[in-house]
Amino acid sequence: MIVKTDKTYKRVFVMIVAINFTKLCAERKSVQIQKLNINNNIKIVSVEEADVEVKQGNSALKIGFDFESNYEPELASLKVAGEAIDVEDKKNAKTILNEWAKNKRIPENFLTDIMNVILSRCNVEAIILSKEINLPPPLPMPKVGVKKKEENNYIG
User: Fold this and answer.
1) What pLDDT, in 10s, does the model give residues 19-49?
2) In this structure, is the dihedral angle defined by the CA atoms of residues 131, 133, 137 and 142, taken in order, positive or negative?
3) Which of 32, 90, 120, 126 is deepest in the core (most CB within 10 A)?
4) Nearest alpha-carbon partner for 39 in 75, 11, 81, 5
5) How far, rounded to the nearest angstrom, does the alpha carbon of residue 150 sit from its chain's CA centroid?
6) Which own/partner pairs from 119-122 qualify as long-range (CB within 8 Å, at least 24 positions apart)?
């Protein structure tokens, strides 16, 4: 990820070293499947310094998250909660902690990478949970299709 700061560019790498799930919940409320709509939502619920030993000059952050897939109309819900351990240099960690303390937000230049890593792990867990209670996966799965053979309309 490239971040623009005061007419200079610096490279920022997010290093998630662990994701620990604290809650996995699948609830099916109805058996009927008519017209189905699946809404996925993820949010960061906490950011704090983690008590993890890291290389000198770095800090570890514990980022709490909640992921939810709702199968509408009121068919089912999947919930995944946990925390990600992110290692940053001390300056970046301080920036993230300060922004969270002030606005309950993570600076945008870090948020995208952090959310993508968390989202990819949560999607895998949500697919497994959906399988266990006989629901379609909460995100579209790749499909194989047959390509139609083009006719040769050569005139000559």
Assistant:
1) 999 999 999 988 776 788 899 999 999 999 9
2) positive
3) 126
4) 75
5) 41
6) 119/42, 119/67, 121/19, 122/42, 122/65, 122/67, 122/80
Instruction: List the structure tokens of 26.
Output: 């699948």
| Percent of the chain with pLDDT strictly greater than 90 | 44
pLDDT value for 63: 94
Distance of CA 80 to the CA centre of its chain: 11
For the chain, domains (ranges, CATH) are 14-132 (3.10.420)
In terms of Cα–Cα distance, which of 127, 151, 125 is closest to 141? 127
Q: Is 145 exposed, middle or buried (0-12, 13-18, 19+ CB in 10 A)?
A: exposed
Q: Would you state the structure tokens that stand for residue 117, as one six-digit string?
A: 């890593």
